[in-house]
């Protein structure tokens, strides 16, 4: 007896996998993952005829038990970890729905915390830009948010002021965090986020979970995160217990960033832009030579050279 996961041959489906449960003649579902590791997986029931004659099998999981109990199917895998799960039949928004969940994701679905509904930063309706490539994006239910989907240069969720992105949040599941960290993709993502005035990374899990995952050395992941935070101290990496609280944190952080940017713009209009930091001596020396100014090869720069650089920058 085994659970079988195969790739969905339908290229137009948003659910990339087929799940075959050995119950009765067999139950087939379309689903978006191979196991409910970080969140409950939505399952769309289909007929047995939809199972391919020659399936592209991704994983075969031996089972100790697969039995229906009321409105749920208990699935117990024959392995030491990630062995318990349930396929639950329920009704949501007036229609029947099926979810595949594990004890961990079931607990996350009910974090035993009531999220506030008050408007963040007093904003009546926050406009949030969602990256066009973001799958299963936050919808911010219960909050005064209007979302627009389009391509973002960096981050998954952003707010704008006068048509310019002023803050962005990069969303990560624990699996994606570890993968992007070990491959180096997260480093490049932070480099791009650093070009914005404000940016953050939110993780849909708790920090101790990095020491329990098995697909990378926990110490390597912890060291990598610490190194990134030292290198980019202005970009916080925030761990939330689950997707729901990560979504709430993202909403309130973006609202605060938008309010701050509005106040900052008003301050610039009143007192002018902040002074541009002077680059290193070698950079100013190279700039002066490009302008045909005489500078020494070493030592401190003459005050008139520094003033010339500031004048060129509009200070």
Automatic annotation (TrEMBL):
The keyword Transmembrane helix does not apply. Keywords: DNA-binding. InterPro entries: E3-bd_dom_sf, ERCC4_domain, Lsr2_DNA-bd, Restrct_endonuc-II-like. Residues 127-207 form the ERCC4 domain. The keyword DNA-binding applies. This is ERCC4 domain-containing protein. It comes from Rhodococcus antarcticus.
């Amino acid at each position: 007896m085994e659970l079988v996961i195969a790739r969905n041959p339908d290229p137009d489906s948003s659910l990339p996998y087929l799940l075959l449960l050995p119950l009765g003649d067999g139950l087939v579902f379309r689903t978006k993952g191979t196991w409910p590791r970080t969140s409950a997986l939505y399952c769309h029931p289909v007929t047995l005829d939809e199972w391919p004659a020659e399936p592209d099998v991704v994983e075969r999981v031996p089972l100790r038990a697969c039995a229906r109990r009321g409105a749920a199917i208990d699935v117990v895998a024959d392995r030491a970890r990630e062995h318990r799960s349930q396929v639950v039949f329920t009704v949501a928004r007036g229609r029947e729905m099926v979810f595949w969940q594990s004890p961990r994701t079931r607990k996350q679905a009910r974090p035993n915390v009531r999220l506030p509904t008050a408007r963040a930063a007093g904003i009546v309706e926050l406009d949030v830009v969602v990256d066009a490539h973001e799958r299963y994006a936050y919808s911010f239910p219960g909050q005064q948010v209007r979302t627009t989907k389009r391509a973002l240069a960096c981050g998954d969720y952003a707010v704008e002021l006068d048509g310019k992105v002023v803050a962005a949040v990069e969303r990560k599941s624990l699996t994606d965090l570890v993968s992007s960290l070990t491959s180096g993709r997260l480093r490049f993502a932070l480099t791009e986020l650093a070009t914005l005035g404000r940016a953050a990374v939110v993780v849909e899990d708790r920090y101790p979970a990095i020491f329990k995952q098995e697909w990378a050395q926990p110490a390597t992941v912890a060291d990598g995160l610490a190194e990134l935070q030292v290198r980019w101290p202005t970009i916080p990496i925030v761990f939330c217990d689950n997707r729901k609280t990560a979504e709430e944190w993202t909403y309130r952080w973006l609202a605060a960033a938008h309010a701050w940017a509005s106040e900052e713009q008003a301050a610039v209009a009143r007192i002018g832009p902040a002074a541009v930091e002077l680059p290193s001596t070698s950079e100013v020396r190279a700039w002066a030579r490009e302008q045909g100014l005489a500078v020494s090869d070493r030592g401190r720069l003459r005050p008139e050279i520094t003033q010339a650089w500031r004048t060129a920058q509009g200070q």
